[in-house]
Amino acid sequence: MKIKFACNKQEFDNDYRDILRAFYPYIVFDDYGELLSLELNKIEENIFDCLIKCNNSKVLRSFTLDKVFLADRESQHYEIKRNAQIKRHSKVMLYDFIAKLTGQTLPYGSLTGIRPTKLYHETLEKGLDAEKYFLDTLKVSQGKVDLIKNICNNQRGIYQVRDNEVDVFVNIPICVSRCSYCSFISAELNRIKQFVTPYCDILIDELKRTKKIIDKMGLKVSSVYIGGGTPTSLDDINFERIIKESKFDCDEYTVEAGRPDTITKSKLDIMSKYGVTRISVNPQTFNQKTLDLISRSHTIDEIYHVYNMARGYDFDINMDLIAMLPQESEEDFRRSVDCAIALDPDNITVHTLALKKGSALKVGGYDNSSFELANSMVNYAQKALEKSGYLPYYMYKQKYMSGNLENVGYCKEGKACIYNVHIMEEVSSIIANGAGGISKRIFDGDRLERLANPKGLDVYLQRRDKMLEDKEKFFS
To answer: Model pTM?
Structure first.
């Protein structure tokens, strides 16, 4: 069905459109399609009306806000939480309307945010029946509610807000080549070689400043995470400089090595030397044809070689897989899951392909919208992993994701990644370093503010002094 959408609350427009996008291909935006409109009216203290119209269909409902979700009227959060409720109720109503219009339902119902588990935790903290709220109010399917509940249970001991703790993120937005599904702000190494050492110089300055902030505020570092991009794309000299400067007094130190074609014995030696505890060796798929299609310039044999080499060190190892890669059948994906399980890594993360603007697959018109295939792939992975002793311990969702599904991290008992839980549930402040890094600071247990570093390498290099000054003010 082709629709033109309009609403009278501009600040909620993107959230409503996320609901409609999740129904693709059953709903497609078109300026010449049928007009679908949503109006929020009579918004008083705790009551508002929602009217939705399309074709000959029309529905009007009146809502009373749930006081348990509202902040105290004198709180600076009151208006924010009031608007959040208005938006949530009207999104549920829009979801119901579209589901009846198309005859389709979505696994996550009206939920379009990236952190379903965070909302589940918050609902429990309000003393409510979170399972009932997700099923009956938000229209989430029983299977996904069970998954969310299981993940929240597996986060015990990690999910807690500590005002005196912080995580450190270090971004290396550089790769040896660009994967066709990638939409990150990441530069190809052969195009920016002249900027690599200057980038590392400023990044090291930023890390030194971060250490001063941590010492001055008397903070404890919970975890360090070096991501990207592909950190192991750096030459050994610059790689060692960054790994050395990123060492903090903490129990978890992760380097997202990722690409097997960038992981060498010398880099494994460097990471071991400076106390790295956790790395990634990410195949994405165990099908060579797919690797070639998505521009991963390595072979299946390299995956096995690098993984076995890394197993000779004292690292916990994560492996990433992606469901719904181009031209892959359900059997292809099942084989990848089985191959990863057979290697017995500490973590396996199952991503569902999200086609975002800027990725080569999106530009090329690849269609990842098969609900049935995406569901079959993800369901197989969940059952196979849980049967093999892996526990789901964190999740997040993205826009334009196949089947409106999710990314889920699975771990062996006791092998959950602290950083992944903290960043997804937003229970810890994060000091981010490097181009595109986003620092987060938690105030009073529930207010979160963000500070973004410049995205591009060139802008990051140019704004060094202002960036460092802004960070010191933000964490003062």
So the answer is: 0.94
